[in-house]
Amino acid sequence: MDRKKNIIRVEDAEYGVDSRYKSNKERESDASALLEKRLIKMGYLPKNQIIRAKLMQLKFKMDDYLKEPVYDGQNYFSKFLETYIDTIYSKRSGFAKDIDITPVRLSQVINNHREPKDEFIMKLMIHSERVYTNVCEFHKKTWFQVYFHEKICDTMSRQEEWLPKIGKHVKISESMV
User: Fold this and answer.
1) Which of 20, 57, 116, 149 has its CA 20 to 30 A from that of 171?
2) pTM over 0.90
3) Structural domains of the chain, count
4) Is the separation of the CB atoms in 102 and 109 below 8 Å?
């Protein structure tokens, strides 16, 4: 009897690379132990290293988001903004003060009650450029790209809603051929 047939192969990053387990219980046990050890090790990292790692992770997530259209209706700009602020500041009012806006305005942008104005995004662009100086390369235009990428994806995903209404008002009066 071949014993290798009973081994479950998992090539999932959550459980380790190319791990071999005899049962799901064994796999889950190892995953829990690994997570626990990672959390303990992270507890010894200096705060600045944790912030640096979170900022790099945010940058990579934003870069991935910009690579492909996303039509799931989530507000990525506000989620990325929230993560950025909460990574750096203990209170969001500190960020609001640093970019010279009211905490209420910031809260409205984060909670999607108000669209960010160009000036807000420009301030965010300058702020993040300064923050990322010692972390990794961060393109100035990233925040604008994320914001407008979301708008484009949202508009295209709702095309069935707006096309019939808007299409009625569009004509071609000149012959093009």
Assistant:
1) 149
2) no
3) 2
4) no
On whether residue 76 sits in a domain, the answer given is yes
DSSP string, 37-99: HHHHHHHTS-HHHHHHHHHHHHHHHHHHHHHS---S---HHHHHHHHHHHHH-SSHHHHHHHT
Place of tokens 């944790």: 50
User: Is the same domain home to 20 and 98?
Assistant: no
What DSSP state is assigned to residue 113? S
Type and span of the H or E element at 34? helix 24-43
Query: Do 22 and 92 fall within a single domain?
Result: no
- Residue 58's pLDDT band (boundaries 50, 70, 90)? very high
- Counting other chains too, the contacts that 130-137 makes at CB distance below 8 Å and 24 or more residues apart are 131/55, 131/88, 132/55, 132/59, 134/52, 135/52, 135/55, 135/56, 135/59, 136/55, 136/56, 136/59
Do 66 and 85 fall within a single domain?
Answer: yes
Cα–Cα distances in Å, from 174 out to 131, 163, 164, 171, 177? 53, 22, 22, 9, 9
Residue 21 pairs in a beta bridge with 8
